[in-house]
Amino acid sequence: MRCTARWLGLLIAGAAACGCSGPSNNVRFRASEADLVWPGPPDVPRVRYIGEIRSSADVRGDRSFGEAMGDVLLGKEPPVGMVSPIGVCTDGGDRVFIADSNAQVVHVYDLSRNRYTQWTPPKGATPFAQPIAVTWDPAGRLLVSDAGLGVVLAFDATGRLLGTLGEHVLERPCGVAVQPGTGLIGVVDTASHDVALLDPGGALHRRIGGRGSDPGRFNFPTHIAFDADGGMYISDSLNFRVQVFQPDGTFVRAIGRKGDIAGTFAQPKGIAIDPDGHVYVVDANFEAVQIFDPDGTLLLAFGREGNGPGEFWLPNGAWFDRTGRLWIADSYNRRVQVFQYLSATGDEP
Fold it and tell me: What is the pLDDT of residue 28?
């Protein structure tokens, strides 16, 4: 009896050590001690580094007594890391979704509940082949483009697969975004060298582009973003530019050209628009982010090759959340880095 009581006491103590007896901690960004900002002093900073997420260990949630006891008896499960995070978005709240192409899953980090899960198609359905990009539909759906399956998969807010969009319409879907106002779903079809605009049910509304180098044509485009007015920004990757369109698809301008100096591109990928309408373009080959005003004037660039804070290795997707945080899928570093947009006064919006 004494032995049994002693072991029970140790189990309870171990469970308490696992955190089930106290309040949860917020997401554990792996932030550096330095306050990294761009541009540096004496200029007013416009972007601040917050930290990174690499694995399920980066959220520390409350665990039930049974889960904590299991950890003590069987040992903790190793953290789940990322293989090749390509796309990232949030749900307008505190959940972060990361498309991991080679792991064939969507990682889900709930920052308010400090929980980690994975979303995949259910048993019996066709599994992910190559999930590339994610976006949150204001209708309450997570949309996942799968380049291998040639469709966009729609999940409800609980992770239940609702169905697929763009069947027999898309060839190799990549970037995906929802147009404000219309609810149209813009899908970059890399193999078709165009952008398909689907209605919320997945039917084709219209296509923009086709292969070429003239204005309004594309050469292996990859990503898309909409501004608050519904204007479209498309990464025309192998034409080394970003093309801008009015909400109705009318060509407006091209930003950038091929080059190796600031304001030019080597391989533009992810695009995101900040709360003030500035355009952020991730360049996978430059391992940097360039920021332009809506007219295409270069304002700032940050990042370099490496694996430290604010450094990148073949970065890809980008997303701005409602708090002005910029999430960037740092693919070959197997992480997502997080930055805060700062207003003209150097404060958070």
Answer: 52
pLDDT computed for residue 344 by the predictor: 75
Give the Cα separation of 46 and 51 in Å (integer): 16
Over residues 303-327, the pLDDT tens digits come to 999 999 999 999 999 999 999 999 9
Instruction: Please give the Cα distance from 313 to 305 (Å, whole number).
Output: 6
d(CA 98, CA 144): 10
**Which regions of 210-310 does DSSP assign to beta strands (E)?**
224-226, 232-236, 241-245, 251-255, 268-273, 279-283, 288-292, 298-302, 304-305
Q: What is the average per-residue pLDDT within 106-119?
A: 95
CA dist 93 to 4, 18, 32, 320, 347, Å? 46, 27, 25, 12, 21
Instruction: Say if residue 276 is exposed, middle or buried (CB neighbours under 10 Å; 0-12, 13-18, 19+).
Output: middle
Task: Determine the Cα–Cα distance for residues 288 and 65; give it in Å rounded to an integer.
Answer: 45
For the chain, how big is the Rg over CA atoms in Å?
22
Which tokens in the block code for residue 178?
């929802």
* Neighbouring C-beta atoms of residue 111, cutoff 10 Å: 17
Q: Hey, is 49 helix, strand or coil?
A: strand
Cis amide linkage into residue 42, ω under 30° from 0: yes
Using the CB atoms, write b or e for 76-98: b if 16+ within 10 Å: eeeeebbebbbbbbbbeebbbbb
Helices 65-74 & 2-17, crossing angle to 10 degrees?
A: 110
Mean pLDDT of 139-155: 97
Interatomic CA distance for residues 179 and 225, integer angstroms: 8
Widest Cα–Cα separation across the chain: 83
Q: How many CB atoms lie within 10 A of CB 176?
A: 27
Which tokens go with 336? 């997502």
Work out whether the CA dihedral 15, 16, 17, 21 comes out positive or negative.
positive
Q: Locate 137 and state its tokens.
A: 């539909």
DSSP H/E element including 2: helix 2-17
The b-or-e profile of 15-28 (16+ CB within 10 A means b, else e) is: beebbbeeeeeebe
The whole-angstrom separation of Cα 121 and Cα 303 is 35
